[in-house]
Amino acid sequence: MNDQMTEYVRKQFPALKREVNGYPVAYLDGPGGYQVPETVIAAVTHYLVDMNANVGHQFETAQNTSVMIQDARGIFADFFNCSWDEVVFGANMTTLNFALAQALVRQLKPGDSILITELDHEANRGPWLQLEDRGIDVTEAAMDINTCTLDMEDLKNKLLKKPKVVAVNYACNGVGTISDVQNIIRMANEVDAITVVDAVHYAAHGPLDVKKLDADFILCSAYKFFGPHIGVMYAKKEILNRLNPLNLRTQQQAPPFMIETGTLHHEGIAGACAAVEFIADIGLKFGHEFDGQTGPLKGNRRNQIIAGLRLFESYEMALTGHLIEAITSRISKATLYGPVAGHPRTSTVSFTYEGYTADQVAKYLGDRGLFVWGGHFYAIRLVEKLGLLDRGGLVRVGIAPYNHGTELDRLIEALSDEDALKRFVETQS
Ligand SMILES: Cc1ncc(COP(=O)(O)O)c(C=O)c1O
């Protein structure tokens, strides 16, 4: 994106007006959750003012709500490249994944195995690990601790056990590694495993294409890509149809409804649609270079979404390169963790700072309006494997499209000022 586009994007986010201690806030906590553009706020408000109702009634607002949800499935069908009846809404990714695990276990028998990974967020591990209570054998594919990537040899060997489910992330929220999910799904399909992809971290950084990936389930959270706090899942129709999810007799017993329990988060869904439309709008306005690559942009929301995400990706990657270079060359006390140069990654950069815990560094930066996270970010297995769990974990910086290079300069300056960090920590104790 050029400066004009950055300026346009930044103008959409009212949260960027916030100041802390006289510093403008730099939201470098994107992997924890994105800020939302004005259009998302407007869509939530519009829903609550003009349509607020439960579904299934005869009056106007209830009918409008049903139409809104049906349209939302269409919008997310473009987001995933699937059909509307493969789009499932839920409270968040974790809740959807528990529902999925509970549905899948009804088809398994004691002794069956499930393959998870060490690189995954706990939300794509815990729902499977708890099935050990039911006699399911849960195995982990190892990660290489030097590169924070999946050990593909280990994964291949563990596939020889013919797991019934393979649960893997697309990108790691702890250190930004993008895994070769397409290849993993291909190998999992060869042993007839059901594949569950956690795309929560990836979804903000690149387009999802379920047709190309051929995964059975892909889970996302709209709050990680400009939307409100709801979860969204792609569920391959023929697979979901074979399952028997926990639900009520009042539930429609067909995909996608059969795994959606209770009343949906209507205003959240309305906001999530606006989030996808925001991405598409950026694609349409600024993505001319992508026009025609997969088809025309005009009149094709899917192509606009792809273009928008590709623009974000190239913008974020340029800033990520700058940040990694600056940390490596200027912050001698910092140790970076994550994939080596050239390996696919997102704009999530994590490090430790010698002599200080991640929490101390994050608080110090927060005091200067630089919002980053310190800890394990629920990628607890990764942090444990890195030997950092007892040492306070990692400092994590995430770069979103509304971040600016000058914010990263401020970050580097703050990290270079070790005396200021020391003074800050002393005042806290
Ligand atoms: C990679 C990844 N997976 C899963 C989750 C859980 O998502 P949710 O908060 O929607 O349950 C997160 C949240 O941080 C995440 O980053």
Please give a structural write-up.
This protein is of the alpha/beta class and about 425 residues long. It has 2 domains: about 5-35 and about 300-429, Alpha-Beta Complex (Aspartate Aminotransferase, domain 1); about 40-275, Type I PLP-dependent aspartate aminotransferase-like (Major domain) (Aspartate Aminotransferase, domain 2), CATH 3.40.640.10. Helices cover about 40% and strands about 15% of the residues. The chain contains 15 helices and 17 strands. The strands form 5 sheets. A 7-stranded mixed β-sheet has the order 4-12-11-10-9-5-6, with helices on both faces. The longest helix is centred in the C-terminal third of the chain and has 30 residues, at about 300-330. The chain is globular, with a radius of gyration of 22 Å.
How large is the radius of gyration?
Answer: 22 Å
The figure for the number of domains is: 2
- Heteromolecules bound: pyridoxal-5'-phosphate
Just name the CATH architecture of the largest domain: 3-Layer(aba) Sandwich
Task: Please report the total strand number as a whole number.
Answer: 17
Please estimate the helix content.
40-55%
Q: Report strand order across the widest sheet.
A: 4-12-11-10-9-5-6
Taken as a percent bin, the fraction of beta residues is 5-15%
Ends: how far apart? 43 Å
SS element count, helices: 15
CATH homologous superfamily caption of the largest domain: Type I PLP-dependent aspartate aminotransferase-like (Major domain)
Predict the CATH topology of the largest domain: Aspartate Aminotransferase, domain 2
Low-confidence stretches: none
Overall shape: it is globular
CATH uppermost class of the largest domain: Alpha Beta
Largest sheet: 7 strands, mixed
Chain-averaged pLDDT: 97
| Sheet/helix structural class | alpha/beta
